[in-house]
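#struct-help
A.M.: can someone run this one for me? Single chain, 222 residues.
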Amino acid sequence: MRIVMDEASIKVPNGGALLNAKAPQVSGVRVQLEMQALWQQFNQLGTEMIVTKSGRRMFPTFQVRISGMDPSAEYVLLMDFIPLDDKRYRYAFHSSSWLVAGRADVAAPSRMHFHPDSPAPGAQWMKQTVSFDTLKLTNNLLDDNGHMILNSMHRYQPRFHVVYVDPAPNSHLNAYKNFCSFSFPETHFMAVTAYQNHRITHLKIASNPFAKGFRTTDLQAW
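D.P.: on it. Structure tokens below:
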């Protein structure tokens, strides 16, 4: 199966509208972001995500609820990350704000993260929350573990893609019909090697169950 994800580069036969050209298996797909209130809390402060050489999981975790799939059709789910702009940033502690520090670094190698349960029938995807909890972010340009490679101090937008696995012969010729993409503005973030905004640090500790050991009350009890 050949997957074409860049809608901007797709040429639709006969000049037809791309949105009207989608296969019925994806044209009705709807996606809802889970933990939206928490994402909005982070977004109001300016979300930061740690990138490390060995790879670090995202928090909040990217999770969605999906509806409108063909229950018996097979789908592949995947994610990628695109730069929000062509700038590099630095954090100004005196004003608690991000400032443009110059032009963006050379773009990191573009990768897709396939959900490990892919491919699976629509019925399976729709019956429960879909979580990308195995996805890791790295700043190692030579990473060979399949992690998502990002440049530190750059802003990124996660994108979520649903791809219908078309069993028809030569399905790759209609690849542009067989996928749909979703992005949620509240999930964009700054990639960092260490948290810059102390309010982000506090919110991560307060809301991440795996950060329990860092909470002040737990430290005092210990």
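A.M.: thanks! The CA atoms of residues 93 and 161 lie 36 Å apart.
D.P.: also worth noting: Helices lie at 24-27, 36-45, 122-126, 198-207, 216-221.
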